[in-house]
Amino acid sequence: MPAQPDPDAVLMLRVKRGDRAAFAELVEKYKQPVMNFIFRSLRDETEAEDLAQNVFLQVYKSRSRYRQTAKFSTWLFTIARNLCLNELRRRSRHPAESIEETHAEHEDQPRQQYEDKSQLAPPENLLQGELAQKIEEALAGLPENQRSAILLCRQDDLSYEEIADVLKCSLSATKSLIHRGRETLKEKLKRYLSTGDWNR
Predict the structure, then answer these.
(1) Alpha helices in the chain (DSSP H)
(2) For residue 197, what is the DSSP state?
(3) CB count in 10 Å sphere of residue 34
(4) Which of 42, 96, 103, 131 is least enclosed, having the fewest CB within 10 Å?
């Protein structure tokens, strides 16, 4: 139990008792961060929306089993990452269903933009056009565990200990993943970034 009451956990305990308004409040607060995390993990707008809905569906279905053993956001992003891992495994079993094909199927539909500038730290005036594309490509090129660690690190309310809980690894391993991921991103993006604070 956290020393300071987690207001989101308090809301979730209300959801557990059947309070739908509390659930709507949690969805409203976390739908964009969850969608950003999934989108940057899978690079598929349609899949991000579908999986984000599944995340909150799982939250609601699991409400009776919820225990306040960690911050709500830790539990939530654990669910989101598990669904992303399941989707990545499915893709590896069915490689013909590539991201490019998925995009081609939906190319006549308006592309939804899930860019959230709070998720990345380069200067705002550079986070446009080619640089934004290169950042997304660099993130996509990271190993899954490094990418997840970096994305979770940009969630301001998650501590390193909580990120370790989501990733199911030790604190030292989590810090190492974040460090290696940042170094790789810096190397890949050094042509495009002359400045930029990638530190927490």
Answers:
(1) 7-16, 20-42, 45-61, 72-93, 99-105, 129-141, 144-153, 160-167, 171-189
(2) -
(3) 25
(4) 96
Check residue 190 and give its pLDDT. 84
Q: What is the pLDDT of residues 73-101, one digit of tens each?
A: 999 999 999 999 999 888 888 765 544 44
d(CA 84, CA 106): 20
- Provide φ and ψ at 175, rounded to 5°: -60, -40
Q: Is residue 72 domain-resident?
A: yes
Residue 170 lies in a domain: yes
Dist CA 184 CA 200 (whole Å): 16
* 114 inside domain: no
Query: pLDDT tens for residues 158-191?
Result: 899 999 999 999 999 999 999 999 999 988 888 7
Do 92 and 1 belong together in one domain?
A: yes
Structure tokens at 168: 């199911």
Angstrom distance (rounded) from CA 35 to CA 47: 9
- Contact between 146 and 184 under an 8 Å Cβ cutoff? The reply is yes
Q: Domain of 71?
A: 1-107
| CATH code of the domain in which 36 resides | 1.10.1740.10
Give the pLDDT of residue 8. 95
pLDDT exceeds 90 at position 59: yes
